[in-house]
Automatic annotation (TrEMBL):
Transmembrane segments: none annotated. PANTHER family: 4-EPIMERASE, PUTATIVE (AFU_ORTHOLOGUE AFUA_7G00360)-RELATED (PTHR43103:SF5), NUCLEOSIDE-DIPHOSPHATE-SUGAR EPIMERASE (PTHR43103). GO terms for molecular function: oxidoreductase activity. Keywords: NAD, Oxidoreductase. Coiled coil: none annotated. This is NAD-dependent dehydratase. Residues 242-266 are annotated as: Disordered.
């Protein structure tokens, strides 16, 4: 009899979790969905009502798990104290719980905003691209990547820091033509991270295979992530015209503007 595979998803009731959890269900796989609000996609017995700072509860939820997809966190700019507590310390608590539970594979939801001040024509020059955060939010995502590196190097955990770009059900004709991440490709990225067992830390772009794309796919392909969707093809199918993106505009978009608030919710 095939042993069941347990996959934990934190932040499962959020925008990404709600869209992707149904795509992660497999025969022989048990999903454990962690959040403080019941995910709309939850099936009976899957949901664990837990805060990301509940170390004891997380260790219990992670018991016997193969992998954890860590989506929990504050998803935009906010006061520094809140971002530090949830995005940085919450990730540390999650990684410590995963280590204690013997979880071998972790995906951390980093963000394009960890490198938001890079411009498109420089993005492909190096993999991984060094952080250039555009906000306090982006700083916490860069810190999340550093925590992933530490836990991988010190404890031999296979960790993917996925710099999630523009996650939408369908792309809009603006920046998403180059930076779209479709739900289907998000699921493919998560599956690649679940299967990983090399004891290394990888920084990859969470992005689809967009014809107008800015982001190199090599680091993702190295872990088995092969995106299939293309924003341009989808927009053309919908009959939407697509302007050429400005290659000098930082990849963080409006987060890099002087009038974008730092340290306050928006």
């Amino acid at each position: 009899m095939r042993e069941r595979e347990i996959v934990v998803v934190t932040g499962a009731s959020g925008r990404i979790g709600s869209a992707v959890v149904p795509l992660l269900r497999r025969e022989g796989r048990e999903l454990r969905l962690v959040d403080t609000a019941e995910p709309s996609a939850a099936e009976p017995g899957e949901w664990r009502d837990l805060s990301i700072d509940d170390a004891t509860g997380l260790r219990d939820a992670l018991s016997d798990a193969r992998a954890v997809i860590h989506l929990a966190g504050i998803a935009s700019e906010a006061p520094w104290s809140d971002l530090l507590r949830v995005n940085v310390d919450g990730t540390r608590i999650l990684l410590e719980a995963a280590r204690d539970a013997g979880v071998g594979a972790v995906l951390l939801s980093s963000s394009v905003h960890a490198a938001g001040f890079h411009v498109p024509d420089r993005v492909g020059e190096a993999e991984p691209l060094l952080p250039r955060p555009d906000t306090y939010y982006g700083v916490t995502k860069a810190a999340m990547e550093a925590l992933g590196s530490l836990f991988s190097d010190r404890f031999g955990m296979s960790i993917v820091s996925a710099r999630i770009c523009t996650f939408l059900e369908t792309p809009d004709p603006g920046r998403a033509a180059a930076s779209w991440l479709s739900p289907g490709d998000a699921a493919r990225l998560f599956e690649a991270a679940i299967a990983l067992a090399d004891g290394r830390h990888h920084i990859v772009w969470g992005v689809s295979r967009n014809a107008q794309g800015w982001f190199p796919l090599g680091a993702g392909e190295e872990i088995g992530y092969r995106p299939q969707d293309d924003a341009m093809a989808e927009l053309h199918r919908l009959g939407v015209s697509v302007p050429d993106p400005d290659p000098t505009d930082p990849i963080g978009g409006p987060f890099t503007r002087p009038d974008h608030p730092i340290g306050t919710r928006w």
